[in-house]
């Protein structure tokens, strides 16, 4: 490779020897692991050329969008509480993620500079890789707007998101705080209209933290409004072995209307991992505990408590061992969610430049859960208060509407 790089100022894909060498390289890499495909592209930083070997991970169709079954989530950029890194460290982290197949990112208008960071990064990528990237962000309306929600106003909000994302906007996900104000129906109508008439602005529309009742209402409204020609493709909600609320009502709504869930909180702030197996309950005031972990620990207590949670971790560890290799607890926890019919993708929280579990997260695609695995998991889940949590907390997203987000 060094000889190839030194033979010209920059790479020339028209060069026969260069192409032959690359084909041989790809052939050897494919022999190492045939589970994933590989694409190639050059990216340039100053005078330095880097060859990106981009893994192809499984995708699923959401309308016209092909979305990877794992997305990187950039919520952690909303606060330094998750750690900080330099721009160069974040750039390097994103390059590693893309090379491993994480070509789709989830962010929001209130995640700090996440949109700008990812948008700038995407613009720096060569065309071959850029075309595979997916920018998924959110427009979150936490208070009723101070003006009528006209199509022009809605379009201006979408353009804000697109501009901050570097000119790319594949999936815009919409959150609306006040259910009592039905303006969200008109806004979603305008969003669908924009996605149908201006694909260069936004390609698809999704929802964020809408419960089953309102998701059904929105999908029914759009079906009537657009005669089945316009619809949302997804709803992003919390879903895990601990928080199973989507399966009680929302799953049936998804099946009825042909939409899928993008899930966050699937790893419960990393509590569903080998790190916590056999450990005492955490000190929530410790510096090492993140804001997300404080939230998810409260959910674990509602679900059944730390002792039952340890039973679950033991069961997951045994399942991981049975599948061999380097499968871990987090892989099994994510697989349980990914195998749900209503789920399209799991969002993996990412601390850019601080830490990375990218390689281990990909192992979720190397096994499937057996009937015996499900029986072992259900033996623990049957002892939990999962359904009581649904009634106590309310349906998906209710926790954000009972108090300020």
UniProtKB/TrEMBL annotation:
Residue ranges annotated for the NADP-dependent oxidoreductase domain, each copy included: 70-381
Gene3D superfamilies for this protein: NADP-dependent oxidoreductase domain
Recorded superkingdom: Eukaryota
PANTHER family noted in UniProt: NADP-DEPENDENT OXIDOREDUCTASE DOMAIN-CONTAINING PROTEIN, PROTEIN TAS
Name assigned to this protein: Aldo/keto reductase
